[in-house]
Amino acid sequence: MNPLRLLSTFAAPVLRSLDPELAHTLTVKALSFAGAIARAEPDDPRLAVQALGLDFPNPLGLAAGFDKNAETMQAMLGAGFGFVEAGTVTPRPQSGNPKPRIFRLVEDRAVINRLGFNNEGLAAAQARLRAVHHMPGIRGINIGANKDATDRVADYVTGLKELGPLASYVTVNISSPNTPGLRGLQNKAELTTLIAALSDARKTLARRVPMLIKIAPDLDEHACADIAELVLASDIDGLIVSNTTIARPTLKSRHANETGGLSGAPLFVRSTEVLRTMRRLTKGRITLIGVGGIASGADAYAKIKAGATLVQLYTAFAYEGLALIPRIKRELTTLLARDGHADIASAVGKDAG
């Protein structure tokens, strides 16, 4: 058995009994030592995707948040993800918000977090990315601004310039609910300024690194239209839809009223609605990555049909472990065959309207 699968199978019950953040920290540390010995089975060719100028072996990615400091990227690629995204990374290290700040909502298959971009900073991530830069695999980096930044745009520009050359793509995270005021960067005027600065900064790099923006699921139609208009008029390559939500649908857990971003199953419907909206507004002209509540091949397939070329997950992975990865890919292959699709591309946007 794959050593990572052994870790997942036998350690999972113990980890679930621990404080969520401690369990996560231990998992990341264990995986950081296991990357070199893990190898997944080759993917079904029908799952291959071409997007962002890159060749993805399958459309299933690990969302940012799991590996904040780029410690487990090779392990997760070895476990079968088609791509992995590390971060969010800020220019300077920061400890994040006070603990406790992660809450399992087991009855709802969800998590609430208010971490606040806790990470070791740009230099640490840069060193780790440099160490694996020569290795195969698609590795994205998610960049953000420090909580006490006096110029948030400058923080994003720094992240792009320093980490972009070492990454397959860069995600600009302007939608976390856990850094006060950050979501304001989604407003038309502020986003216009940010995109212009990032576009200018990218021109100084030795190669054109694909650049995506990660948006919130709490945007209304008007805000979505503004973002679509700006993105289509710029050289942004894609959108990640979506981050966690500050909304609180009906939840069963005693942690339901904790502040922070809600992820997992309750986010699926809303994030898919926003994804479908952005597919319509962007007219299929940019790459969309669907995130939010994916826990099965059927969930991933629904995101793809709503307009996603690629998908990402995190919360379900935290609950179910590494066995979830091959299961989703098997189920997705079955669904493609059932509907007569030769590949992922032929299914993208079929239900977008």
Molecular structure report:
It is a single chain. The chain has 353 residues and is of the alpha/beta class. It has a single domain, classed as TIM Barrel. The chain has eleven helices and 13 strands. Strands 3-4-7-8-9-10-12-13 form an eight-stranded parallel beta barrel, surrounded by four helices. The longest helix is centred in the middle third of the chain and has 15 residues. It is globular. The model has no long low-confidence stretch (mean pLDDT 92).
Topology:
Elements: H1 3-16, H2 20-32, E1 49-51, E2 54-56, E3 60-62, H3 73-78, E4 83-89, E5 102-105, E6 110-113, H4 122-132, E7 139-143, H5 152-163, E8 169-173, H6 188-202, E9 211-215, H7 221-232, E10 238-241, E11 261-264, H8 268-282, E12 287-291, H9 297-306, E13 310-313, H10 315-320, H11 324-338
Parallel strand pairs: 3-4, 3-13, 4-7, 7-8, 8-9, 9-10, 10-12, 12-13
Antiparallel strand pairs: 1-2, 5-6, 6-11
Helix pairs in contact: 5-6, 6-7, 7-8, 8-9, 9-11
Q: On the 0-100 scale, what is the average pLDDT?
A: 92
Q: List low-confidence stretches.
A: none
CATH architecture: Alpha-Beta Barrel
- Radius of gyration (CA) equals 19 Å
Number-wise, the strands total: 13
**Class, according to the CATH hierarchy?**
Alpha Beta
Q: Class by helix and strand content?
A: alpha/beta
Tally of individual helices: 11
Topology order in helix (H) and strand (E) letters: HHEEEHEEEHEHEHEHEEHEHEHH
Using the coordinates shown, work out and report the CATH topology: TIM Barrel
Beta-strand percentage? 15-25%
CATH superfamily: Aldolase class I
Query: Distance N terminus to C terminus?
Result: 43 Å
How many structural domains are formed by the residues? Answer: 1
Which sequence of strands runs across the widest sheet?
3-4-7-8-9-10-12-13
The largest sheet is: 8 strands, parallel, barrel
* Overall 3D form: globular
Helix content percent band: 25-40%
